[in-house]
């Protein structure tokens, strides 16, 4: 038909040339070949520095800010300064974890990462509420080295069903919140760790900046594991890292600077945990609160047992 549109004819392709739309095809399918290639990876000093800094300030520092700042500024029926620290942590930490995944020289399973980030935010938010109430109870005489029912301000509550409510709050804080917070946190770190291998021996060195950050990073992981009571999760993650290192070594691959930084930080953390346990091994009161096979006291339980009285005495002077 004369009015019908003619089919568009392409000239014959020259040998070795791409067909029409070849660039799109290569962008979608040719990337699969690039996923198996190893790119040069530099030490992510900026991300590790921000990550370590915000961990210390927003996570470790939040209960300290709550205790130090005057109650007149943050009444007991309002969020404390530590709560605002926790809110900032819940936003900044997922962002830094996502940036860390983006910097990986290897393509990682993004769907698993995104789901982990969602669960992480949910768990950290649950913990925000439970931890806020539990730490505010310190001002009323609550003692963290005792169980909920053994606390002087809790055991005489009437009706007794109120004690069940406080135990539920403790469960959300210490068990459900911690599990939904820390499991995806360590999973993301491990996923990132799987992309930290290189065949280039020269890249398996840590710069001076990494050595400087390793101390505060390891010390924070010690606090995270002991205060969060997540030693089993931590040690399984560490064993998985060791197994992966040995497996990749057989292929001629070694850890790059970022992988070494994370791996050595976990090793130093294990040493710090061992020293902490040995130091408090004969503490009968803490032994009563942590009667299980794995005895790892929480730093805040140690504080309320041994240091809070000293702090109150100094304020009295």
UniProtKB/TrEMBL annotation:
<keyword id="KW-0472">Membrane</keyword>
<feature type="transmembrane region" description="Helical">
    <location>
        <begin position="181"/>
        <end position="200"/>
    </location>
</feature>
<feature type="transmembrane region" description="Helical">
    <location>
        <begin position="230"/>
        <end position="247"/>
    </location>
</feature>
<protein>
    <submittedName>
        <fullName>CLN6 transmembrane ER protein</fullName>
    </submittedName>
</protein>
<dbReference type="Pfam" id="PF15156">
    <property type="entry name" value="CLN6"/>
</dbReference>
<dbReference type="InterPro" id="IPR029255">
    <property type="entry name" value="CLN6"/>
</dbReference>
<dbReference type="GO" id="GO:0005783">
    <property type="term" value="C:endoplasmic reticulum"/>
</dbReference>
<feature type="transmembrane region" description="Helical">
    <location>
        <begin position="259"/>
        <end position="281"/>
    </location>
</feature>
<feature type="transmembrane region" description="Helical">
    <location>
        <begin position="47"/>
        <end position="69"/>
    </location>
</feature>
<feature type="transmembrane region" description="Helical">
    <location>
        <begin position="81"/>
        <end position="100"/>
    </location>
</feature>
<dbReference type="GO" id="GO:0016020">
    <property type="term" value="C:membrane"/>
</dbReference>
<keyword id="KW-1133">Transmembrane helix</keyword>
<feature type="transmembrane region" description="Helical">
    <location>
        <begin position="112"/>
        <end position="130"/>
    </location>
</feature>
<feature type="region of interest" description="Disordered">
    <location>
        <begin position="1"/>
        <end position="32"/>
    </location>
</feature>
<keyword id="KW-0812">Transmembrane</keyword>
<dbReference type="GO" id="GO:0007040">
    <property type="term" value="P:lysosome organization"/>
</dbReference>
